[in-house]
Amino acid sequence: MNTLDPASARPDYASLQQAAEWFAVLSSGTATEQQRQHWQSWLDARAEHRNAWARVESINQRVDTLGTAMDQHTAASALQTATKTVRMRRRTLGTLGAILALLLGGKLIHGLPPVRHTLAAWRADYRTGIGEQFSETLADGSHLWLDTDSAADVRYDGQLRRIILHGGALLVRTAPDTARRPLVVDTPHGRLLALGTWFSVRHNDGHIHLSVFEGTVEIQPAATGAATQRVAAGQQASFTRDASGPLQPLVQPQPQWQDGLLIADEMPLAEFLAELGRYRRGHLGCAPAVAHLKVVGAYPLHDTDRALELLATALPLRIRRTLPWWVTLEAR
């Protein structure tokens, strides 16, 4: 396996496409020795090629890890059960420990999405796989939705209604509590205190993003002495352990993903594909020449291939499938 060359950590679009094409050739089972030699020459020619090849290998491994690779182990059925959107506390810790031991022993964890790197996520009350969503009415009447590739625990006691987001995104519509217990969402970067509200929380790389659709939510960053910030309906903000970012108006007045839709209103194509790509395995991207095109409309999240077909009809684009898990959009 190749590793990233520090001389060029970000391979360009052309190098990535060439790497994907070479991967398709070499994995076809019909590659000739001459083709292998040409691939090696291409790989040795530039650091960008080596980084692109490492990127393609990483994505392939990530796709295979929960697919073909797991089919080779007797733990496959247990893992499939463990990833369903049900209460994980009903599974024994021994079973989960055995699954994790098998995964780690076989080095299958490498390259998986961050939510799957933690034991807490594996043991979560609720979790979803890539492309899955889930909803549940909680004991107090509040409603919880989980987005794709997410994990959360629910901990209610006599003093507090607590939801713990381990990764991914959730949406909460709170209900009045007869015991007057506060409802909070805890994240790795701090706590969110709901003040009679409807809001979503998303765990991004390095920060948490909050969107408030009704009521008010108070951000309480985890660092000692960090200032709190209240976010009202129609506002959004990001925060880290140390501080909250500036308040911004919501782009959408209400969430859409819980209805299985990705709503775009003049959204740049590159941004649209990055969001749609969260709901499918593998690589989804576009050529730089079309990255600026504006996307408008409602697209299904539960059928991303259909969403791409609709997109290619609405815009002058063609879908290029170099591999089943490597899809790019280019000018038509």
Automatic annotation (TrEMBL):
Asked whether the keyword Transmembrane is assigned, the reply is: yes
Signal peptide boundaries:
none
Q: What is this protein called?
A: DUF4880 domain-containing protein
What are this entry's molecular-function GO terms? sigma factor antagonist activity
Keyword annotations: Membrane, Transmembrane, Transmembrane helix
Instruction: Mark the transmembrane ranges.
Output: 93-112
Taxonomic source organism: Pseudothauera nasutitermitis
Superkingdom to which the source organism belongs: Bacteria
User: Which positions fall inside the FecR N-terminal domain?
Assistant: 17-58
Q: Would the keyword Transmembrane helix turn up in this protein's UniProt record?
A: yes
A Pfam family annotated for this chain is FecR
The UniProt record lists the FecR protein domain at: 125-218
